[in-house]
Amino acid sequence: MKRKVLPVATALLLSSLLWIVPMVSSYAQAQNIAEIQGKDEVFYGNLDANGAVNSIYAVNQFNVVNGGTVTDYGTYASVLNLTTTDSITQTNDTITFDVDKGPFYYQGNLTDTNLPWIVALTYTLDGEEVVPSELAGKSGDLVIHLTTRQNPEVNPVFYENYMLQAAFSLGNDIFSDIQADGATIASAGQTLSVNFTIMPNQDADATITAKVTNFQMDGVQISGLPFSTNIDLSGTEDMIEEFSQLTDAIKELNNGVKELDQGAISLSDNATKLAAGSSELQDALTQLSGNSNRITNGSGQIKSALSQIASSLSSPSSSIDMASIGTLTQTLNQMADGLQGISGGLKKLNTGFQAAYQALDQAIMSIPDPTLSQEQINELYALVAVEDPSQNSTLDALVKAYSSAATVKGTYQNVKPGFDAVGTTITNLSPSLGQMEGGLREIATQIDTALSSGDLSSQIGQLATGLSQLSDNYVTFHNGLVSYMGGVKQLSKGYIDFQNGMSQYSDGMQTFQNGISKLHDGTTELQDSTDDLPTQIQDKIDTMMAEYTGKDFKPVSFLSDKNNNVRLVQFVMKTVDILLPEQEEVAVVDQPKETFWDRLLQLFTGK
User: Fold this and answer.
1) Is residue 4 domain-resident?
2) Does one domain contain both 82 and 208?
C-alpha cells in the first residue's frame, strides 16, 4: 500500500500546479500589470555656488516589455509624465501609471534635499574669502576649494560604491596660470576642463589656483556613478613569483645569519679562552722575568767561583794550599747543586710557559682568517639600513670586533717566533746546565779520589786545565743566560699591552656575539613576517580588485526600498553659474522723419 502513496501525491501536486500557473497568469492579465525589464533612476541636484542643495528631481526610466499598469514608489512634491500626455496617479509614496511597450520616462520633484554627499565650495580672491555673488567681474589671484564628504542621513551604499567626478569649465580668456594638483586638465576649445576624480568611500579635498580677469564661471558639474572597471592583472603571477623568490632569499639570509650566530658563539667562547690563556702566559712570563735576577745572580756567583778556583789551581803547586783542596770538592758539589737548581727552575718555568703558550696558540689559531671584503661589509650595512637602522651601532661594534680579531691574529703570527724562542732557549739551556753540573761533580770526584790515593799533586795540572776550560765555557753560558733573561724581561713588559688587547678583544667578541644574536632575532622575525608574503600580496590584490572593480555591487533604489528591478542609479549635481550682472539696455525712441508738408505746416503754425 505504501508504494502507491507517492505516485498519487505526485499526481495531485502536478495537477495543482497546472491549475495554479494559469491562475497566476490570469490574475496578472486581469490586473493589467506591465512587464518591466528594468528601471533606471537619474537624480539631478541643483546646488548654489557654495554647494548647498537647492532642489532635487529624479528622472525615472522604464524599459517596458509588455504594456500595462506600473507601480513605482517615491516621495515627491509633484510628478510629470515626460513620455505621453497621460496622467500619473500619486498617492502618498505610491506612483501608478499606464504604459505601452517601449521606454517610458517620468519626472519626480523630491521633497527631501539630501544627497549621498555633502558638497562645499569656497572662493578666495587675493587671500580674502569672497561670497560668490560678489565675485563676478573681479580680477586677481583666485583659489577655489572643493570638499566632499559622506552625508550620514543617506544610505551609505552610494558613498561606499560610487565614484564622483567634479568638472570645472574655465574660460581661457578669464583664467590663466591654472594649478590643480591631482586633477586632469584638458583643452576644450575656448575653455579648459579641470576634472577631479573621487574614489568610492573617499572624501575630496581639491584646490584650483589661477589668475582671473573679469571673473565669471559656468556651474561646477559633479557626477556620481557606480564604480566599475576592468583591471588587467594578468602580470601579477610574475610579481608573486618574484616575491616568492624574495621570501626564499630572506629564508636563506636567516639561515646564514643563524650559522653566523653559531659561529659567533663559538668565536666568543674561544675569545674568552684566549684571554684566559693569554693571562696564564702573562703570569708565566712575569714569573720567569721575576726569577731572572736570582737566576743570573746565582749563575754569576758560580762563574766567579769557577774563575777563582781555576785561577788558584793554575798557580805553582808549591803555592797551593793543600788544606783548602779538601774543601774544594764540597764547593764544587755546591756549585753543581746550584746549577741543578737553576736547571730545575728553568724546566718548571718552561712547563708552565709551554702550557699557557699552547692554550694561547690554539685559541688564536681558531680565529678564522679574515675573508669579508669591504664590499660585503658595505652590503651588510645596506641590509641593516633597510631592515632595522637601530642596529647600525651594533654592526659598527661587529665590524670593529671583526677587525680586531684580524689584527690580533696578524700580530700574534708576527710575534709567534719570539714565543717559540722562549721555550726553545730554555730547552737548549737545560742540557748545557746538565753538562756543566756533571763536569763539576766529576772534577769533585776526581779530587776526592786523588786525595784518598795521595796522588793529588800529580793531578793538579790536569785538574787546573779542566776547571779552566769549564770556567771559560761557563762564562759563555752565563753571558747567554744574562742576554736571554734580559729578552724575557722585555717580552714580559711588552706582553702587558698584548694582554690588554686580548682582554679588549674578548670583550669585543662578546659584543659581537650579542649583536649577531640580535641580528638573528631580527632576521628570524623578518622571515616569520614574510614567510607567507606571496599569499598576503595575493589576498591584498584580491581585496583591491573586489574594492575597485565593483563586481559585487547590486544597484538599489535611492527613492524607496520598495522599488525592485533597479538596473542603474546615477547622480548629476550642478552649481549655479557665476555670471556678470546683465547690463540694462536704454530704450532708444526712433524720431519720425519730417516730410515736406510737416515743414510747411510749421511755417503757418509756428510749431
Assistant:
1) no
2) yes
C-alpha distances out from residue 187 to 190, 220, 223, 407, 464, Å: 8, 16, 20, 71, 128
Residues 482 and 592 in one domain: no
The residues, any chain, with a CB within 8 Å of residue 194's CB and separated by 6 or more, are: 167, 168, 170, 178, 180, 183, 184, 185, 208
Best CA proximity match to 285, nearest among 435, 484, 88, 92: 484
Same domain, residue pair 254 and 213: no
Sorted by sequence, the CB contacts under 8 Å of residue 419 that are 6+ apart come out as 281, 357, 360, 361
- Tell me the pTM: 0.48
Q: Rounded distance, CA 174 to CA 166, Å?
A: 20
Of 536, 564, 585, the one marking the end of a domain is 536
Q: For residue 56, what are the β-bridge partners?
A: 45
Q: Collapse the DSSP code of 121 into the 3-class scheme (helix H, G, I; strand E, B; otherwise coil) and give the result.
A: strand
pLDDT value of residue 511: 72
Query: For residue 45, what are the domain limits?
Result: 38-228+550-597
Contact 484, 289 (CB under 8 A): no
- pLDDT at residue 411 in the model: 67
Left (φ > 0), alpha (ψ -120 to 50) or beta: where does 559 sit? alpha
Predicted confidence (pLDDT) at residue 304 exceeds the cutoff of 60: yes
Residue 164 contacts residue 574 (beta carbons within 8 Å): no
Please give the pLDDT value at position 16.
45
Same domain, yes or no: 195 and 244: no
Q: Residue 464 CA to chain centroid, in angstroms?
A: 90
CB-based burial label for 220 (10 Å; 0-12, 13-18, 19+): buried
DSSP states along 443-468? HHHHHHHHHHHT-HHHHHHHHHHHHH
365 occurs within a structural domain: yes
Q: What percent of the chain has pLDDT over 90?
A: 35
Cα 248 to the center of its chain, rounded Å = 17
3-state helix, strand, coil in the chain (%, to 5): 55, 20, 20
User: Between these two residues, 42 and 392, which has the higher pLDDT value?
Assistant: 42
Judge if 532 and 555 occupy the same domain: no
Q: What percent of the chain has pLDDT over 70?
A: 51
Distance in angstroms (rounded) separating the CA atoms of residues 473 and 276: 41
First CA to last CA distance, the chain: 130
Q: Tell me, yes or no, whether 62 and 155 share the same domain.
A: yes
CA angle 450, 455, 456 (to 5 degrees): 60
274 assigned to some structural domain? yes
Q: Closest by alpha carbon to 265, among 512, 504, 503, 524?
A: 512
Q: Are 32 and 82 a contacting pair, CB within 8 Å?
A: no
Q: Specify whether the CB–CB gap between 121 and 52 falls below 8 A.
A: no
Instruction: Name the residue type at position 188.
Output: A
Torsions phi, psi for 172 (to 5 deg): -65, -30
Find, among 185, 192, 219, 173, the residue nearest to 48 by Cα.
219
DSSP conformational letter for 318 = G
Both 105 and 59 in a single domain?
A: yes
Within 10 angstroms of residue 178's Cβ, the number of other Cβ atoms is 18
Residues 396 and 325 in one domain: yes
Tally the domains of the chain: 2
* pLDDT at residue number 175: 95
Q: Quote the CA–CA distance of 238 and 244 in Å, as a whole number.
A: 10
Other CB atoms closer than 10 Å to residue 201's CB: what's the count? 14
> To which H or E segment does residue 207 belong?
strand 204-212
Is 10 a domain residue? Answer: no
